[in-house]
Design brief:
Elements (H helix, E strand, L loop, with lengths): L4 E4 L5 H13 L12 H7 L6 E4 L5 E9 L9 E8 L8 H15 L4 E6 L4 H9 L3 E12 L2 E11 L5
Parallel strand pairs: 4-5
Antiparallel strand pairs: 1-2, 2-3, 3-4, 5-7, 6-7
Bound molecules: coenzyme A (COA).
């Protein structure tokens, strides 16, 4: 991991970010979505202050993490939903753990108290990653949506920050 660093996501990262996003969608267990959005749509839906990329020593982007607000209601202003995607060729090296740690620190420093995520039960890598990072399983939504013509469950997870009191 010595060669991997995390920095804020920039507009110039758009192509790599969206390519890694698409690779994750193509693998079939990341999301109900099947096509990555345009950069404009990605950019509009995610908070600018809490988006990061992991880069190798050449500056190549190997993974990213970002959050979206969950509600326009003031009471939920500190509740966000995140996505994390790592290049298939770079998985299993601790990159997602590094990105998630950076996101937790940045959101806590901004007073965001809850990060939530919905994960397919088959996505054992993501479930393990999140449980190790302090997320807890809220429950399982059963056959909540169709993906490639089959109904799929979604496990809801959240991490309530102990630092935001
Ligand atoms: C899920 C994903 C982000 C994990 O990224 P990664 O960089 O490979 O994960 P890391 O190497 O940082 O692993 C962190 C922890 O996750 C768990 N983990 C990662 N890959 C795993 C696997 N294949 N099987 C079981 N656990 C795994 C481990 O607990 C690991 O901790 P450890 O190394 O201390 O045991 C990656 O597989 C990915 O991009 N998948 C496609 C997109 C996706 O599904 N995103 C999540 C949507 S909810």
């Amino acid at each position: 991991m010595a060669d991997i660093t995390v920095r804020p996501m920039a507009t110039g990262d758009a192509d790599r970010v969206l390519a890694i996003y698409q690779a994750g969608l193509d693998a079939g267990n990341a999301s109900f979505e099947v096509t990555a959005p345009t950069w404009a749509a990605f950019d509009a839906a995610r908070l600018a202050a809490h988006r990061f990329v992991a880069v190798d020593s050449d500056g190549t982007v190997l993974g990213w993490i970002a959050v979206s607000p969950t509600s326009a209601r003031a009471v939920y202003a500190g509740v966000v939903e995140h996505s994390v995607y790592v290049d298939p060729a770079a998985q299993g090296r601790g990159i997602a753990r590094l990105l998630l740690g950076t996101l937790i620190a940045s959101t806590e420093a901004a007073g965001i108290w809850t990060i939530q995520s919905g994960i397919f039960p088959e996505n054992t890598a993501s479930l393990a990653l999140h449980e190790r990072a302090g997320f807890r399983v809220i429950g399982v939504r059963e056959r909540v949506g169709r993906h490639h013509d089959r109904w799929r469950d979604v496990v809801l997870l959240e991490r309530r920050s102990p630092a935001v009191t």
